[in-house]
Amino acid sequence: MRTAVLVINSGSSSMKYQLVDVDEGTAVASGLIERIGPSTANAEHHFAGNTTVFQGEIEDHAAALRVMQQLFIESGRPLRSAALTAVGHRVVHGGAIFGDPVVVDSTVLQQIRDLSSLAPLHNPANATGIEQATRAFPGIPQVAVFDTAFFRTLPAAAYTYAIDRTVAAEHRIRRYGFHGTSHQYVSQQVAIALGRDVEELDQIVLHLGNGASVSAIRGGVAVETSMGLTPLEGLVMGTRSGDLDPGALLHLLRSGLDVDQLDTLLNRQSGLLGLSGVNDFRDLARRIADGDAEAELAQQVYCHRVRKYIGAYLAVLGGADVITFTAGVGENAAAVRAQILSGLEGLGISVDDARNSVRSPDARIISPDGSPVTVMVVPTNEELAIARASARLVANGAVAGSSRHALRSKGKAQP
Ligand code: ADP
User: Fold this and answer.
1) Where in the sequence is the domain holding 306, given as residue range(s)?
2) pLDDT at 339
3) Distance from C-alpha of 45 to C-alpha of 57, rounded to nearest angstrom
4) Ligand 1 in reach of 239 Cβ (< 6 A)
5) Is 191 close to ligand 1, i.e. is its CB under 6 Å away?
């Protein structure tokens, strides 16, 4: 392995990681640490077909990184032997400051923290993960890759909300968009799979996972996306409402709910979960098969919302060459794909049932031959995209000596 990048995705109480062989484009090892904090934590590490587990207290992200390193050792492939080129971090919000990936120094770290008011659930955890990884892997460049970056190209008409412009400017309220690493990666994979240049294609990408978003991409450049100031806007998600009349929030506030209750309601108790009691499409499918009317309605609401966005983005683009499904639901739920696109034949969009029912880890076309709009399923791989971006940055000499110096001189700053 000539170019090895450790990719880290830190949540407030979790940490996902993957060791990526950038030359081969493969995951060498991966893991998930959950329930970091005062309760009993769980860690699972996967390497060479084996799973190594840890259970016990992992009090903070520094401890989580120590457990991760120990799991690498126990699995027989210590991280030390990987000769890391970089550690790549997923950072959710880059605000209006960050576009391209950056090598993190103390200034960048502070800027990521300063963006926390825009992403209170994510950016503080991302920053803590970077800070601790800097200590755990001294001398290895830490690269931040921003979920918002791909959407920096949105035109003003798409990113501007129609509210008082002074209030918007003061509070940095605009559409930023999220899942950008996935939308960009998938749109490039579409072009590769079709043997076309990405510049030639107008695309709609449907990232349907626990979180869900859709983007319109003209010639490789993002021009519209469904997530907004936060990852709450747009499609119906596992536990998030997506679009909602802002008047409903005012109504609930006046009815006595406080801000934290609203936050919990919209981010954790809404979406498929709020409508049906379950947030996973596999459970939803079982309930629908059992004749559960609430589950049936939840799926209809979900599909209707996606379809509405497809119509809107066809108009934004003036027609699309390709519509692509990706992420957990998009890659696996054939029935949901079919339901979303049913009745769109008049727009040149249809699904071939036999192709749609094939299960495969590969990029594939599911529309009939000769369709005006090609419909595809393309697996996303955000970790690989982050690893590649990190390796490219370091190879281009972007490791400012000053950035490492700055971190070192920061000494034992408290997290
Ligand atoms: P995340 O946003 O957490 O990365 P994923 O992209 O992994 O989420 O998507 C997770 C979701 O994908 C699950 O909640 C479930 O709804 C859906 N999913 C995963 N596998 C299947 C499957 N085989 N059939 C239907 N839905 C699936």
Assistant:
1) 197-381
2) 98
3) 16
4) no
5) no
